[in-house]
Amino acid sequence: MPLISIFTHLKCNFRMYKKLLLCASIFIGLLTLCTIAAEAQTNFKLKFRRSAVYAGIEVGSKGVKLSVLEIGKNAQNTGTFNVLQDSSVNTDFITFSPASFSATLKALTGLYRVANLQYKIAPENIYTVMSSGVKVQAEKENKLSWTKNLADSFRALIREPQRTVDLVDVIDEARLSHLGIVPEAKRYSTFLIDIGSGNTKGGYFPNGNTREMKLFQLTWGTKSIANGTEKRMEDNRTLANFQKQLFRVLEGSANQEIIYAVNVSGAYNMSDNIAFSGGIAWAVSTLLFPELHENAVVPVTYDEVLKFSQQIYSGYNSYTPAALVGKIKDKTIDKLPIAEEIKTVQKVFDQRALMAGTGLLLKIMRQFEGVYERKQFFLVKSGQVGWISAYVDQHSVKP
Amino acid sequence: MKETRISLLLLLSMSLLLLAFVILFIWGFMYYRKAINAVPAAAVVVVNDSARLVERTRDSMQNVFTATINKINAALDSTRINTDSVQLTMDARLKEFYYLKTEIDRLYDTRLSPAQLAQAREKLAALQQRLEEWRGKYAEVTEENKRLSALIARMGESIDNSDQAVNSRPAGEPARPVAKAVNNTNGSKGLSVTDLQLKALTEDKQQETFQALQTGQFQGSFIIKANGSAMPYDEIYVVLQQPDGRVLTQSAWDSGSFETREGRKIYSYKLRFDYQQGENKRLNFSIEADQYQRGTYTMQVYHKGILLARTTKSLS
After folding, report:
1. Measured between beta carbons, which residues in chain B are less than 8 angstroms from residue A35?
2. Strand A81-90 with A273-277, pairing
3. Which residues contact B203 (CB under 8 A, 6 or more apart)?
4. What is the 3-state secondary structure (H, E, C) of B111-127?
């Protein structure tokens, strides 16, 4: 009843309230605009005072990956970037079927829109590439037209006909990773090795320029070492037997290939620093130095990794999140995200996978552990997104 | 006809007003959510009586605060009695402590929102951390003083000559609390550190500065001397602690962690060196950070996990 009477009263005095209603409408309009503006700001927690946020979308063999990075002003000098977001969609593009094409295009467009609309990253700060894995397979199967079609369809869908979608080759990928991860001061003295699940690849710049790169490749990765070990175990599935068979795999054909590849690369004489990236580098650095959780790179010695490999076999229980976090005495360090990261590592790598990966890491490190000359080893945690930093540096407009 | 138009316009206006209230409510909710998010992650508690909870939190915080104050006062008394050589550092720390105390008092005088409570909690944590640091430093100072006295007696000469270089300042620069070597200790296999220097330079790296806002780089150096044999491929760690207690690092490639008697410590810079017997070797380093806090920075030099020397530098 009172509502109706208010309504009737307003109706009768409409002219009188006209100005008031107009003001209310303007107020609502402003309020809405403010709400939209407030929501438009990204919620990323930035680490550096002078930095910018960039996104890289990579079409790989297995899927499409979006990485959002905060890149500091001196990224090229200090190798400082901060991974803000890392997400991927599995699409299996290299099967080159209509279904995988459509799924890849959908994922690529979707992730681009997420970066642009949700994270509010300007189109000029979003970089799109197709990985060397895609290029190699497309060339092998004579399907390069599929990559061109994908790029064209993507450009049409996002209505950006000028957008660059580079198809990078193996050497470009290695070069970009090296340039993005390794700081300028260590550029020509660092050998970067990426230990993947199925293979290991890397390289260094031997002649003081970034045009010439010496590549390094092994057919062994964390998973292939673990699979090779599992195959040898037969009926005895115990951890002790896994350790025994792992030793045999590492001492057998893997060792021969590693010695040969390192010798051929000539990296021993040309490098002071040996940096390892890939999943196992992230896992070992997280478990070995939890207090350096915020560091994208951690220095490590051969002895520290050796001790770690012995510990994960005989005392794996001492690597629980609670045990590791409990050892951190520094009260300025936030322990909660460290415990979460340790949990993630243990979800990705179980005890046997860790043993296999660490074994391979040690085998490669051993080739650089000289009596008269000591190399500095580094473990790189976010190596997979390093290319974006280099790509930004190469493609951004400089004043 | 006109009647219908007016009714429609009125309906539209009223729905717009309603929308305004909805937006205002959403804004309020967003503000509330942000305030909640600002509080560090903790166990989720169902709040039935928020006023009582706030009161209870205040009470428990008051207890922690009182206990901390009492502990600090006790520590202060004993520290004042037992220390003389570190008076300058103590004064700086005292100043920091009373500043924090005043801030917390001010927070208690006002009605606290959850965000302010979180702020108060942070301040209390900082206060407790200062106490812990103080305790640790007091123990270290006592121990190192003993060691230093023994060394002085043995060597029969003063080893501390670092103040001269450190206290020099550009003409016209007002007197400031500048870097002062606190200790030089021959604690690690006969290795001693002298002439410890820490300078803050402007962004163009041309001039020394005492202002945090003008600082673009820290530059440090010291001389090492070993009484024993040559040391090939040895390493020295430099820890540069910021006023908030966190270690200042330039790049992850230059920092890391190392073992000490007190557990693993993060270092700002690692210096690798080859040492020839009898050599007076000067080691230099520079650290460039993204930003610099105001307050006292502490530089520590470690060798094989043992603290060899320490100095401080204040930026205003």
Report:
1. 23, 26-27
2. unpaired
3. B214, B215, B216, B217
4. CCCHHHHHHHHHHHHHH
**Closest by Cα among A361, A202, A379 to A353:** A361
Q: What share of chain B is helix, strand, coil (3-state, %, to 5)?
A: 45, 25, 30
State the Cα–Cα distance between residues A1 and B194, nearest whole angstrom: 90
- 8 Å CB contact between A103 and A94: no
Where residue A179 falls (left for φ over 0; alpha for ψ -120 to 50; beta otherwise) is alpha
Q: CA A130: distance to chain centroid?
A: 15
Nearest chain B residue to A285 by CA: give it: B256
Residues B210 and B202: beta-carbon distance below 8 Å: no
Residue B57 has a pLDDT of 52
Residue B88 burial by Cβ neighbours in a 10 Å radius (0-12, 13-18, 19+): middle
Half-sphere exposure of A74 (CA within 13 A, CB side): 14
Smallest Cα–Cα separation from B208: which of B232, B163, B178? Answer: B178
Read off the pLDDT of residues B11-59 as tens digits, 9 standing for 90 and up.
887 887 788 888 888 888 877 766 554 433 333 333 344 445 455 555 6
**Residue type at A306 in one-letter notation:** L
Q: How far is B246 from chain A (nearest CA, A)?
A: 6
What whole-number percentage of chain B has pLDDT above 90? Answer: 12
Query: H or E element: which one contains B271?
Result: strand B269-275
**Phi, psi for A211 (deg, rounded to 5):** -75, -40
DSSP state of B252: T
Interface confidence: ipTM more than 0.85: no
User: In the structure, what pLDDT confidence band is assigned to residue B185 with cuts at 50, 70 and 90?
Assistant: very low
HEC per residue, B207-228: CECCCCCCEEEEEEEEEEEECC
Map residue B137 onto helix, strand or coil: helix
3-state per-residue secondary structure call for chain A: CHHHHHHHHHHHCHHHHHHHHHHHHHHHHHHHHHHHHHHHCCCCCCCCCCEEEEEEEEECCCEEEEEEEEEECCHHHHCCEEEEEEEEEECCHHHCCHHHHHHHHHHHHHHHHHHHHHCCCCHHHEEEEECHHHHHHHHHCCCHHHHHHHHHHHHHHHCCCCCCEEECCHHHHHHHHHHHHCCHHHHHHEEEEEECCCCEEEEECCCCCCCCCEEEEECCCHHHHHHHHHHHCCCCCCHHHHHHHHHHHHHHHHHHHHHHHHHHHCHHHHCCEEEEECHHHHHHHHHHCHHHCCCCEEEECHHHHHHHHHHHHHCHHHHCHHHHHHCCCCCCCCHHHHHHHHHHHHHHCCHHHHHHHHHHHHHHHHCCECCCCECEEEEECCHHHHHHHHHHHHHCCCC
DSSP category for residue B188: B
- In three-state secondary structure terms, B232 is strand
For residue B262, the 8-state DSSP code is T
Any residues with CB less than 8 A from the CB of A365 and at least 6 apart, and which? A274, A276, A302, A305, A377
Q: For strand A81-90 and strand A126-130, is the pairing parallel, antiparallel, or unpaired? A: unpaired
Burial bucket for residue B212 (CB in 10 Å: 0-12, 13-18, 19+): middle
Phi and psi (nearest 5°) for A179? Answer: -65, -35
Minimal CA–CA distance to A255: which of A225, A278, A234, A231?
A225
Chain A residues within 8 angstroms (CB to CB) of chain B: 7, 10-11, 14, 21, 24-25, 27-28, 31-32, 35, 38, 47-50, 72, 74, 78-80, 182-183, 186, 289, 291-292, 295-299, 327-332, 336, 374, 378
pTM: predicted TM-score of the whole model, two decimal places: 0.66
Structure tokens at A353: 């996978």
Q: Which residue of A has its CA nearest to B18?
A: A28
CB contacts < 8 A, A to B, total 100
